[in-house]
Amino acid sequence: ETGVTQSPTHLIKTRGQQVTLRCSSQSGHNTVSWYQQALGQGPQFIFQYYREEENGRGNFPPRFSGLQFPNYSSELNVNALELDDSALYLCASSLTAGGREETQYFGPGTRLLVL
Amino acid sequence: AQSVTQLGSHVSVSEGALVLLRCNYSSSVPPYLFWYVQYPNQGLQLLLKYTSAATLVKGINGFEAEFKKSETSFHLTKPSAHMSDAAEYFCAVSVLDMRFGAGTRLTVKP
Fold it and tell me: Distance between CA B33 and CA A70 in Å, rounded?
């Protein structure tokens, strides 16, 4: 196990609702990245947080937003849910030092179903 | 921008046979390269990584990968497949952020 935890494990929402997913990073890590993995596809990068600041963003609309807290845990918020948001959401934590990010370690994911 | 291409969405081998999963990358700067494995309904587990040291990288569970700059490849191999190796395998490249391939599903036949 990596020490990265995510909650909840499963979630069902309806279109238009809002959702918050949570991630606790591995001890000693200061960077958290979020990914969306649709069924049968590879993970797609949503964004990354380093020391509580957004440190990169993939091709996702602004209704996907995030936070990182002083203890380096993180939240992913999705507003105005759409059917296509149904996916496995993965959080990964890592250590960034000397300007370079080290290996990302993944949590088990949160499976979101939007009806 | 960096990217990876995994050749073959499905690979099937017999137990005890060689496993070869192909990955080609594109990057304008020296990249870090990774192989992750995903079992059903689970997150991703790191198998191995290349960070510009030795070109032959050994990972967990008997897997290894060789970085070939001239071929822009980072293929994953295992000499002898085991039933427990059946899973989805993802190659990834990291420069500014992590980019994953579409994945290769490995099936191991008894």
Answer: 30
